[in-house]
Specification:
The complex is a heterodimer of chains A (about 220) and B (about 140).
Chain A (H helix, E strand, L loop, with lengths): L3 E7 L5 H9 L2 E7 L6 E6 H10 L3 E6 L2 E13 L4 E9 L6 E10 L3 H4 L3 E4 L3 E6 L8 E4 L8 E3 L10 E2 L6 E6 L9 H5 L3 E2 L6 H13 L1
Parallel strand pairs in A: 1-4, 2-6, 7-10
Antiparallel strand pairs in A: 1-3, 2-3, 4-5, 5-6, 7-9, 8-13, 9-12, 11-13
Chain B lengths: L6 E2 L24 E5 L3 E4 H14 L5 E4 L5 E5 L12 E9 L4 E6 L3 H12 L6 E5 L5
Antiparallel strand pairs in B: 2-7, 2-8, 3-6, 4-7, 5-6
Helix pairs in contact in B: 1-2
C-alpha cells in the first residue's frame, strides 16, 4: 500500500458552529491522537483528502506545521444524505508497531456451486487484521472458483498474506453457496389479522370469566 | 410478509410531524446497493409490498432484496358520509415513517446496472423521491 502525503493545519476553533463555517470554506475538521501524546485538532483540504480516500490507502504522512507524522486513517464520518465527509480521525502510529484495522474482502472467480444452480452469498464484507503499517493490504482477494454447492469459505481459509494476522473469529463464514430458499407463504388469515393490543382492558364479562377460571385453577 | 406489527401497545397513533434527516438506517448495511429516500413521508405497507413485487419480477435468481423499513404506524380514517366528531376513526392501514436519508431497500448479489433498473421500478411505486446509493468502502 502506498503512503501518501497530506498537509493539515492546526485549528483552535471547535464546536458545531465553528466547524460548520470550516466545512463551508471547503475544509474538513479532523483530529490526531494516540501514543500518549496530546490530541491535536486539525483542518484538512476537502479536495486533497477525498482524493487520498479514493485511492484506498490507509497510511498517510501527515504534515502539520512542518512536522511530519505517520498516521492511520482511523475513522471517517460522512453525511449520508449530502455524500460529504464530516470529520476524520487520525491515529499516530509507529512504523515498527503492529496496528489493528478492518480490510474489505473481495471475491473473484465464478464458483462451481453457482454453475450448478446455487446462489452465492457474501456474508462477511470486511475482516479485522493485525499487521505492520507498511504491510497493510488494500483488500483481501479471495478466489471462490472451487467453492461448491453447500460449501462455505471461513475466515481461517482466507489467503495467507505475509505479516498479516486475521483477528476475526476463525470459524465465521465469509461467503457461501447455497440453494435458493423459497419465501414462506403466510396464510391470508394471518395477513389480515389485527395486531394484538397489549394495553387492552378486558370487558366486564370477560373479567369475571377470567377471575372464575383463575379460582378453578 | 406480514407488513404490520404482531403486537402493539395502542391501536391508534397520533399523526406527528417528520422533522430533520435520518440519523439511523441511513447507510447501506447489508447489500451492495441501496435505495435512499430524499424526502420525508409515509410509505404504506401496500406501497412497500408493491415495490417488493415489482423488484422480484425483474431481479435475477442470484439477486437478493432486503426491505429496511417496517410499517409500525397505524393510520385511521372515518367512513365516508359520516358526521364529524364521535371520536377517532378506525385504523385503516399501516405506514413506515421515513425521513430524508433513510435507506428503504437494499440489493445484493447483482451488478450496478441491474440494481439501477430494479430500483427504477421500485421508485415508481414510492410516494417519495429516491436515489441509488452504494455501500461505502471499509475504513
Amino acid at each position: 500500500m502506498k503512503i501518501l502525503e497530506l498537509k493539515a493545519e492546526k485549528r483552535t476553533t471547535k464546536g458545531s458552529k465553528a466547524v460548520k463555517k470550516l466545512r463551508e470554506s471547503g475544509q474538513i475538521p479532523a483530529i490526531l491522537y494516540g501514543h500518549k501524546q496530546d490530541n491535536v485538532m486539525l483542518c484538512l483540504n476537502e479536495h486533497d483528502f477525498t482524493r487520498i480516500l479514493h485511492t484506498g490507502t490507509r497510511m498517510i504522512n501527515l504534515t502539520v506545521d512542518n512536522n511530519k507524522e505517520s498516521a492511520l486513517i482511523k475513522d471517517v464520518q460522512y453525511d449520508n444524505l449530502l455524500d460529504c465527509v464530516l470529520h476524520v480521525d487520525f491515529s499516530r502510529i509507529d512504523l515498527t508497531e503492529r496496528v489493528k484495522l478492518r480490510v474489505s474482502i473481495e471475491l473473484h472467480g465464478e464458483s462451481i456451486g453457482v454453475k450448478e444452480g446455487g446462489v452465492l452469498t457474501h456474508v462477511m464484507k470486511d475482516v479485522e487484521i493485525e499487521c505492520l503499517p507498511t504491510a497493510i493490504p488494500e483488500k483481501i482477494k479471495v478466489n471462490i472458483s472451487e467453492l461448491g454447492l453447500g460449501k462455505a469459505i471461513h475466515v481461517k481459509e482466507l489467503p495467507v498474506l505475509e505479516g498479516v494476522l486475521y483477528i476475526s473469529d476463525a470459524d465465521v463464514v465469509v461467503a457461501t453457496v447455497h440453494q435458493i430458499v423459497e419465501a414462506k407463504t403466510v396464510p391470508e388469515e394471518e395477513l389480515l389479522a389485527e395486531p394484538e393490543v397489549i394495553t387492552k382492558k378486558p370487558k366486564e364479562g370477560e373479567e369475571e370469566a377470567a377471575a372464575e377460571s383463575a379460582k378453578k385453577t | 410478509m406480514r407488513l404490520m406489527p404482531k403486537r402493539v401497545k395502542f391501536r391508534k397513533s397520533q399523526r406527528q410531524k417528520i422533522k430533520g434527516n435520518a440519523t439511523r438506517g441511513n447507510k447501506v448495511s447489508f447489500g451492495e446497493f441501496g435505495l435512499q429516500s430524499l424526502e420525508p413521508g409515509w410509505i404504506t405497507a401496500q406501497q412497500l409490498e408493491a415495490g417488493r413485487v415489482s423488484a422480484s419480477q425483474y431481479l435475477p435468481r442470484e439477486g437478493k432484496l432486503i426491505i429496511r423499513v417496517f410499517p409500525h404506524k397505524s393510520v385511521s380514517s372515518k367512513p365516508i358520509e359520516t358526521r364529524m366528531g364521535k371520536g377517532k376513526g378506525e385504523p385503516e392501514y399501516w405506514v413506515a415513517v421515513v425521513k430524508p436519508g433513510t435507506v428503504l431497500y437494499e440489493l445484493s448479489g447483482i451488478n450496478e446496472e441491474i440494481a439501477r433498473m430494479t430500483f427504477n421500478r421500485i421508485a415508481h411505486k414510492m410516494p417519495v423521491k429516491v436515489r441509488l446509493v452504494q455501500r461505502r468502502k471499509t475504513i
